[in-house]
Amino acid sequence: MNVAIAADVKADQSATPSKNSQAQNGMDVLLDLVSDDLKAVNALIMKHMQSDVVLIPQLAGHLIAAGGKRLRPLLTLASSRLCGYKGDRHLGLAACIEFIHTATLLHDDVVDESDLRRGRDTANALFGNKPSVLVGDFLFSRAFQLMSRDSSLEVIRILSDASAVIAEGEVQQLMTSNDLETDRDAYLKVISGKTAVLFAASCQLGAVVADRPQNEADALEAYGQYLGIAFQLVDDILDYSAKQAALGKTVGDDFREGKMTLPIILAYEKATAGNNAEELAFWKRVIEELDQSDRDLDHAIALMHKHNALEDSMSLAREYVQKAIDALAIFPDSPEKNALVKAVEFSISREF
Amino acid sequence: MNVAIAADVKADQSATPSKNSQAQNGMDVLLDLVSDDLKAVNALIMKHMQSDVVLIPQLAGHLIAAGGKRLRPLLTLASSRLCGYKGDRHLGLAACIEFIHTATLLHDDVVDESDLRRGRDTANALFGNKPSVLVGDFLFSRAFQLMSRDSSLEVIRILSDASAVIAEGEVQQLMTSNDLETDRDAYLKVISGKTAVLFAASCQLGAVVADRPQNEADALEAYGQYLGIAFQLVDDILDYSAKQAALGKTVGDDFREGKMTLPIILAYEKATAGNNAEELAFWKRVIEELDQSDRDLDHAIALMHKHNALEDSMSLAREYVQKAIDALAIFPDSPEKNALVKAVEFSISREF
User: Fold this and answer.
1) How far apart are CA A131 and CA B301, in angstroms?
2) Chain B contact present for A164, CB below 8 A
3) Keywords of this protein's UniProt record, alphabetized (chains A, B) (predicted)?
4) Which of A138, A163, A164 sits opposite B168 (nearest CB)?
5) 10 Å Cβ neighbour count for B11?
6) Residue B320 CB coordination number (10 Å)
7) Gyration radius of chain A's alpha carbons
8) Minimal CA–CA distance to A80: which of A30, A42, A46?
9) Which of A92, B19, B86, B194 has the fewest C-beta atoms under 10 angstroms from its C-beta?
10) Residue B266 CA to chain centroid, in angstroms?
C-alpha cells in the first residue's frame, strides 16, 4: 500500500513544481542505477508467481503486475551494488522480498465485516477474503522455496525473522487501534515492526550476499530501519493531508479505523496537557467509540493543525531521515551511496 | 480441524465397542512409542509460540494449547525413530510442522461474510478475521525462523514446497466449490495438496534428519501421502455420517458450503449416468446455487446412500490405506513400523 501511494504521488509530480520534481529525481537516480537489475527482478517475479491454479497468478497479478515502485527490491539491488556484489543472487532475493511484501499487503487488506462496506478496490474486495489469504500464503511459501534453493541459512534467518516481526507489528497495531492511551513509543514500535523491519532486511541483504563485514551489514540494516520509519511516518501524515484530498486521493482511512497514528497521538497529548474537555470528548467518541459522522474528519484535521501535530510528526520523520543518511557514513562516496541518500530524501518530500 | 475431529472420535471410543477400541489402540501404540519425544515437542511448541505481543500466544493457544492429537508431529517422531535417528533435531522439526499446520487451520477458518452468521467457535469467530490471519502468519514465520537456526536447506526446501502446495490445494478447493463438474481426479488433487502433502513431508523428514538413502525418504513420503489422502477421505465421509449426527457432532458443513467432496461427486455421477432429472436439479440447486432449506441435507445423505456414495468413498479410502502400508514394505519389522501401520488403520476405523 505504501508503494502504491508512493507511485501515485510520483505520477502526479509531473504536473507539480520544483519540490516534487526534486523528489522524482530522488527516486530516478536509484531507478536509473539499477534499471537492468530491476528488469531481471520483474521477470523473476512474473515467472515465480505462476501456478497451475489459475486464480493464484490472477489474484497475485492484481497487486504485483499492476506495478508499484518495487521500493524494497530496489533497496536490495542498490545495497548489493554498494557492497560491490557482482553475482546475481541479489535478483532472486529482491523477488523474494517483493513476494513477502505482497503477501503482507494481501493479508493486510483482509478486513472484518464492517470494512467490506466501503467497497474498496482491494484484492480482497474483488476476490473475497479467503483467496486473498491463501494467495498471500502461496507467495510467502514461494519466497521461502526460492530462498531454500538459491540462498543461505543466514538469508532465511534474516527474512524469517523479519516476517515474524512484521506479523507482531501488525497484531500490535490491531491491539492499539481505538486505544487513546497508545503513546508515541508504542506507535514507533508498531511501525518499526510492520514497515521498517522489511526495509532493514532489504538493505542488510546487500552486505550479506556480498559477504561484507558485519559493520556494513549493520549500517545498511540501520539505514533501512530509519528509512522505513520515516516512510511510514510520512504515509501516516499523508492520510490527513489536505493536499492528498485536493488531488482526489483517499484521506482519513486511518481515522475511520480508529488507528492510533502519530498525528492523533500528538493531538490527543495536547488535549490532555491542556485538559481540554471538549477535545478529549471528541477523540474519545471518534477513536475509542468509533462513533463518527461526516464532518469529524475535518474537525480532527483542524485539531491537528491547531496543535502542530502534522508538523511535529514531519519533524520526527526528518530526524529519521537524517539518521538514515548518517548510517551510511561508513561507506565511501559512490553513485550507489548517492542514490540511497536521494531515495531517503524522496521518502519525506512527498508533500502534505 | 482434522486432528480435532480425530480427537473427538477417539474421546467417544471409550464408550463404544470393539472396532473403535481397536482404533484407539492403533493411535495408542504410536503415542506410547514416542510419548517422551511428544512431551518435548509440546514444550517446544509452548515455548516458541510466545511473543511480547500478548494476543499472539493467546490466540495461538486457543488452537495449539487446547490440544489436538498432534498427528503430524507424531508421524515425524515415529518416522525419525524408524530410521534409527538418535539426535534431537526431529523435535524442533515436529514443532515447526505443528506451527505450519496451525497456521493453515487459522487461515482456513477465515471466512467470508456469509459464513460469519453461523457463529462457530473458531479463533476467527472469537477474535475476528484479521488477528487470525496475522497470528497464522506469525506461526508460519516462526516455523521458518526455527528451521533457519536448527536445520538444513533440504528441510526448508521440503517444508516450503509443502506449504506452497497446501496453499495451491486450498485455492483449488475454493475454485471447485459449487462446481458440479468437479470430478474425482480434481478432488483427489485438492486433498493431495491441502492435506496429504504435509503428512508426506512430516514422514519424509524422518529419513532426512537420519540421513537415510533417498529410497527410504521416498517410501516415507509415499506412506504419508497415501495416509493423508485416506485421512481426508474419511473426514469428508464423516461430514455426512449419521453416526456423527447421533453423537451430537456437526454434520453437513461441507454441504452448506457447497464443497465438492467425493460423496457428492459420486452421487452426482450416478444421477448423471441415470439421467435422473429430479436428482440433477436437486444437486444444481443445493450445490451450484447454494439454495438450501432445512431438509436438504437429509435428502442429500439419502441420495448418497441410494447410490452407495459413502460406501464407495470408504472403499477408496481403504485402497489408500493399503497403499500406505505397502509403501512401508522396504523397512524391516520393528515397533516403529508396527505403530505406523496401526496409525494408518486408525485413520479409517473412525466409523460412519
Assistant:
1) 29
2) yes
3) Magnesium, Metal-binding, Transferase
4) A138
5) 10
6) 24
7) 20
8) A30
9) B86
10) 21
Instruction: Look up the ipTM and state it.
Output: 0.89
B301: cell is 445423505
Interface contact A179, partner B, CB < 8 A:
no
Please tell me the predicted confidence (pLDDT) of residue B127: 72
Contacts with A, B 306-335, CB within 8 Å: none
Residue A1 contacts B, CB cutoff 8 Å: no
- Mean pLDDT of chain B, nearest integer: 88
Buried b (16+ CB within 10 A) or exposed e, B38-75: bebbbebbeebbebebebbbbbbbbbbeeebbbbbbbb
Q: Domains of chain A (ranges plus CATH)?
A: 2-11+19-349 (1.10.600.10)
**CA dihedral sign of residues A284, A287, A291, A292:** positive
Burial (Cβ within 10 Å: 0-12, 13-18, ≥19) of residue A243? middle
Mind listing the pLDDT tens digit for each residue in B304-352?
Answer: 999 999 999 999 999 999 999 999 999 999 999 999 999 998 888 865 4
| pLDDT tops 60 at residue B61 | yes
Whole-angstrom CA distances from B109 to B1, B79, B126, B280 are 9, 30, 11, 30
State yes or no: pLDDT of A191 exceeds 80.
Answer: yes
Which of B129, B152, B155 should one mutate to test binding to chain A, selecting the residue with the greatest count of A CBs within 10 A? Answer: B129
| pLDDT(B5) > 50 | no
CA distances from B200 to A140, A147, A346, B148, B262 (A): 21, 21, 49, 21, 21
CB within 8 Å: B171 and A138: yes
Sign of the torsion angle spanned by Cα atoms B75, B260, A133, B110: negative
User: Minimal CA–CA distance to B313: which of B264, B277, B242, B243?
Assistant: B264
Tens digit of pLDDT for each residue in A86-103?
999 999 999 999 999 999
- Residue-wise pLDDT tens digits, B260-291: 999 999 999 999 999 999 999 999 999 999 99
Rounded Cα distance, A186 and A165, in Å: 14
Residue B105's nearest CA partner among B157, B150, B154, B70 is B70
Q: pLDDT tens digit string along A119-171?
A: 445 566 667 889 999 999 999 999 999 999 977 999 999 999 999 999 999 99
Q: Which residues of A touch B142 (CB under 8 A)?
A: 160, 164
Judging contacts by C-beta atoms under 8 Å, the chain B residues touching residue A130 are 110-112, 174
Contact A166 B137 (CB under 8 A): yes
Beta-carbon separation of A133 and B56 below 8 A: no
Instruction: Name the pLDDT band for A342 (thresholds 50, 70, 90).
Output: very high
pLDDT of residue A163: 98
d(CA A263, CA A269): 10
In chain B, which residues have their Cβ closer than 8 Å to the Cβ of A52?
168
Report the candidate in A193, A352, A176, A166 with the shortest Cα–Cα distance to residue A258.
A176
